[in-house]
């Protein structure tokens, strides 16, 4: 399946969706001008991946900042992963946050409360 | 002669303006169209200033959050005006001030009068809520709310109150029979907690 690699910028995150090498990751900052169209390829990729996933799926979030509009799209991604988990697939979310960033830790906790999927908090 | 007088008057005004900015500890002021480019430019400028001044990370992050949400509120709601030739559409004023104990971020933009009731209710409701209620509201809105055409998620005010833990101060001043100027100030404490 096709690999997606998007370089991060000052207002958009770096994205790697590489099923072959088991790297699924969103990192950096997210405040794109148009959140829906920015995240559309990610959601499309996940839809395709979900049809034929690897034995174990680990999705890494390593964001340093996201705006409120992005928070909604991140939830869409998490809900897609939740759907896979509900179908019996082995899915793990790893939510990385800077050790001193309480708000980012709390954001992870809140997502973990909303979606029913194995969720790991990883301070760094 | 008259022209010279005008120039002098204008320069005196600039000096008064400068003094007034200093007196109010204003570090950034802008009037004009608020776009994504402007949002990026101001946030990165303020960020590098705060970093130079060794502001704690948590304060820097909060100021950044508030600035982005305030600016995006204006840019995403700028097109709400039904009359497309309206002078104020898409424009606004943006101010950042830095006091001894806090930063404040103020925005002002024109809104149609029939939005005042809705905005007042929304802001009062958010101001009344405690931490836990705000968290629940944010989660619910994120799950059930829909993105507007311009990408507004209706989460901005909730996020500002949550990040600053301070009431949002706002004011409406009449411009005409149909429109008012909507001013909003958020304050961010400079103590690291």
CATH homologous superfamily heading of chain B: Histidine kinase-like ATPase, C-terminal domain
- Unreliable residue stretches of chain A: none
* Share of residues in helices of chain A: 25-40%
Number of helices of chain A: 3
Instruction: Tell me the distance between the termini of chain B.
Output: 58 Å
CATH architectural type of chain B = 2-Layer Sandwich
User: What pattern of helices and strands is seen along the backbone of chain B?
Assistant: HEHHEEHHHEE
CATH secondary-structure class of chain B: Alpha Beta
What is the helix fraction of residues of chain B, given as a range?
40-55%
Oligomer status = heterodimer
Given as residue ranges, the uncertain stretches of chain B (5+ residues, pLDDT < 50) are none
Describe the protein's architecture and organization:
The complex is a heterodimer of chains A (124) and B (193). With 124 residues, chain A is α/β, with parallel strands linked by helices. Chain A has one domain. Helices cover 40% and strands 32% of the residues of chain A. Chain A contains three helices and six strands; from the N terminus they run βββαβαβαβ. In chain A, strands 1-2-3-4-5-6 form a six-stranded mixed beta sheet, covered by helices on one side. In chain A, helix 1 packs parallel to helix 2. Chain B is α+β, with helices and mostly antiparallel strands and 193 residues long. Chain B has one domain (28-189): Heat Shock Protein 90, CATH 3.30.565.10. Chain B has helices spanning 2-23, 36-52, 57-77, 116-128, 131-144, 156-164; strands at residues 26-33, 91-98, 102-112, 169-174, 179-189. Chain B has a five-stranded antiparallel beta sheet with strand order 1-2-3-5-4. The termini of chain B are far apart. In chain B, 27% of the residues are buried. The model of chain B has no long low-confidence stretch (mean pLDDT 87). Chain A binds chain B through residues 10-11, 31, 33-36, 65, 67-69, 71-72, 75, 100-103, 110, 113-114, and chain B through 36, 39-40, 44, 57-58, 61-62, 64-65, 68-69, 72, 135, 138-139, 142-143, 145, 147, 151-153, 155-156, 158-159, 163.
């Amino acid at each position: 399946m096709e690999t997606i690699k998007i370089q991060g910028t000052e207002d958009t995150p770096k994205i790697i969706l590489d099923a072959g090498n088991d790297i699924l990751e969103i990192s950096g900052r997210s405040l794109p001008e148009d959140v829906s169209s920015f995240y559309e390829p990610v959601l499309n990729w996940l839809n395709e991946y979900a049809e034929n996933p690897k034995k174990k799926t680990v999705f890494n979030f390593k964001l340093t900042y996201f705006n409120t509009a992005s928070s909604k799209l991140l939830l869409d991604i998490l809900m897609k992963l939740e759907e896979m988990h509900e179908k019996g697939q082995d899915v793990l979310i790893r939510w990385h946050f800077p050790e001193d960033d309480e708000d980012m830790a709390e954001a992870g906790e809140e997502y973990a409360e909303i979606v029913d999927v194995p969720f790991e908090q990883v301070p760094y | 002669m008259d022209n010279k007088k005008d120039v002098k008057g204008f320069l005196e005004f600039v000096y008064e303006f400068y003094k007034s900015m200093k007196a109010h500890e204003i570090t950034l002021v802008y009037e004009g169209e608020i776009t994504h480019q402007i949002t990026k430019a101001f946030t990165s400028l303020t960020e590098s200033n705060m970093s130079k001044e060794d502001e704690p990370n948590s304060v820097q992050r909060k100021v950044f959050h508030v600035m982005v949400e305030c600016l995006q509120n204006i840019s995403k709601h700028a097109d709400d005006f039904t009359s497309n030739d309206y002078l104020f559409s898409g424009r606004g004023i943006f101010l950042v001030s830095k006091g001894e104990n806090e930063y404040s971020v103020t925005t002002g933009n024109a809104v149609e009068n029939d939005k005042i009731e809705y905005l007042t209710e929304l802001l009062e409701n958010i101001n009344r809520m405690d931490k836990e209620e705000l968290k629940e509201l944010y989660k619910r809105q994120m799950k059930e709310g829909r993105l507007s055409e311009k990408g507004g998620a209706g989460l901005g005010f909730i996020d500002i109150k949550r990040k600053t833990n301070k009431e949002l101060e706002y004011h409406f001043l009449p411009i005409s029979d149909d429109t008012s100027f909507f001013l909003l100030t958020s304050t961010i404490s400079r103590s690291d907690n």
